[in-house]
Design a protein that fits this description.
This protein has helices at 23-36, 54-62, 78-91, 99-108, 114-118, 122-134, 165-177, and strands at 3-7, 42-44, 50-52, 67-72. By secondary structure, the chain is α+β, with helices and mostly antiparallel strands. It has a four-stranded mixed beta sheet with strand order 1-4-2-3. Helix 1 (23-36) crosses helix 2 (54-62).
Amino acid sequence: MHIELWPINKPRPYAGNPRSISLAAIRKVALSIEQFGFQQPLVVDSAGVLIVGHTRLLAAQQLGLTEAPVLVANDLTDEQVRAYRIADNRTGEESDWDTEKLIQELEELGTINLDEMTGFDNGELETLLQDAVSLSGEDGPDLGATDNGFEYNEQYAVIVTCRNEAEQQATFEKLNTEGYTCKVVVV
């Protein structure tokens, strides 16, 4: 696999792209490129027409980048190129989130600006945090020993919405001095 750096205007969008790309998607991908760099190359056919990466290309253009990493897939037939365009978008729709694991990952990130770093917007993060509270409710899994010996530890949490960062800091410090284990989340 050989990845090349191309001028940003050299890859050509596929005119028949069946996916519509929202401004919100472009913004989220642009934030991702800003935070993590261009980690996934654009994929083009032998004529330089995009197969995969339409949103990444638009995000890179929005950021004013002058180059983008490109993989030329010149070993694919025309039918494979068409099918790959569709499959690349469709296969991601087959996955679901494991909410408990996702919440745990978000909590491990600590006080970073989650909406800029994860692609979730503030409303989605708020819903996830509300889900975290409801996970310990009656409809949740039975807690205790499992057949494989893993022990679930029941935990109780309270989410406090503060008016500003100063109030958040004061609340955090007060609860910590009272012996509570606290995590700061910015949503």
